[in-house]
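Sample intake sheet
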Amino acid sequence: MKWTNDAHRHLGVLPAYPFYGGPPVAPAIGSRATIGELLADLDREGTERALVIPNYGVPDPAIAFSFNELCVEAAGKDDRISAALWVSPRAEDADRTEDALKLAGEDGVRALKLSFLLGGRASDPACRPQLDKIFATAREHDLVVHVHTSPGAASDIDEVGKLVEAYADDVKLHLVHFGGGMSGHIKLVGGRFFDWIAAGKQVYTDLSWAIGFTPRWLVEEISRRGLGHDRVLFASDEPWGDHEGELAKLAAAAGDGELADLVFRGTFDVLYGPKKGK
C-alpha cells in the first residue's frame, strides 16, 4: 500500500472517566500527548498527511477545547499535519467557541470539528446562533466543518442531515463515520448521500467505524451512479479507531485504481491540504 492521508485522528490524552456507571477507565490506549509521539505514529503507519483533531469523549467540553492550541501548534511544526479546531453548538460553550474561532485563520487550520455527543441538536433553536457563527467562520476562511454522525445520541444522521440542508450549499461538510451505524449507512447509500451530491451540496464522508457491508456497497453505488467518487476519504479515528483495520477494510473495497487514489490521497489534498497561495 502506498503512503496514505488520514482525514480524522485525535491529539491529546483524556482523563479516566466512569463511563456507563462503571469504574473510571481510559479506553483510548493509543492517545498521544505530544506532537513527537503523533509524528512517530504517522511514520510507523505510513501516513503522509493527517487532519488532527482535539481528543474528546468525556462529558467535559473544556477538555476538548483545551487541546485546540496543541493541534494548531502541531500544524505549525510540521506541514504533514493539518489542524481542526474543536467548537460547540451549545449556548453554554459560546465563550469557548468564540475563543476557538479566533484561531480559524492560523496557518494549518483546515477544519472546525463539531459534535453533538456532548450536548445539543442540529434542530435545537438554542443551538442555531452558534451553528450560524461556526459555519460563517468556515465560509470566511474556506474551512471544512467536520461533524460526528454516530447513532443513539442527538447526532443521528437525520439530525445531522439538517446541517447539510441548511449550510452545505457553500460550506464543505464532512460527515464522520458515514452515518455511524446501520440506519445511517442504509439511508445514505440508499439514496440520501447521492441525492445531496446531485443537488450541489458540498458533502463528504469517511467510513471509519462503518459496518462491514457498507464500504463494498458504497463503492458499488458510486460506480453504478457515476458520482461520489471524489467525496469519500480514508480516516482512522485513532486512538478511538484502529488504523490497520480501517485501512484494510477500505482498501479491500476501493481497490487500487482511480477511486483508491482519491480516497486515500487526492480528496484529502482538496479538503485538508495547504490552502492555495500558502
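Comment: The mean pLDDT is 94. The chain is about 40% helix and 15% strand.
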